Description:
Elements: E1 3-7, H1 8-21, E2 27-32, E3 36-37, E4 39-43, H2 57-69, E5 73-81, H3 90-94, E6 102-107, E7 115-120, E8 127-134
Parallel strand pairs: 1-3, 1-8, 5-6
Antiparallel strand pairs: 2-4, 2-5, 6-7, 7-8
Amino acid sequence: MATVQIKREILEAIVRHAEEEAPRECCGLLTGPGEIITHHRPMKNVLESNVRYAMDARELFQFFKNLREADQKHLGIYHSHPVSDAYPSETDVRESFYPDCAYFIVSLKNPHSPLIRAFRLPGDGAEELAITGVE
């Protein structure tokens, strides 16, 4: 199983964002200067839905512009599943436009024990990634 490395504090921030946005899905972007995810950018779910998410096109444009200026790489995307498992839905797979990124999904199905998993979504399915938290 391939691995994705992410700072523990970013994992914690993603779960907090999911909890704050519940019962709506949250979403955001993940970056780092190399191969380790060191930063996150919470985004607004413009759909304000509990089963889908979408990010504002202008915000995405600004994100990618700032990314180049900061010498960072786009390494991942995250969103939450407020009432379902941490596994990509058919919509998640169909709407995955960044095959080289890690897609993190936070499940709040059991609100006392959030679960986070990561996947590569090459467009024809899901390949789970092992998550390694780093300091």
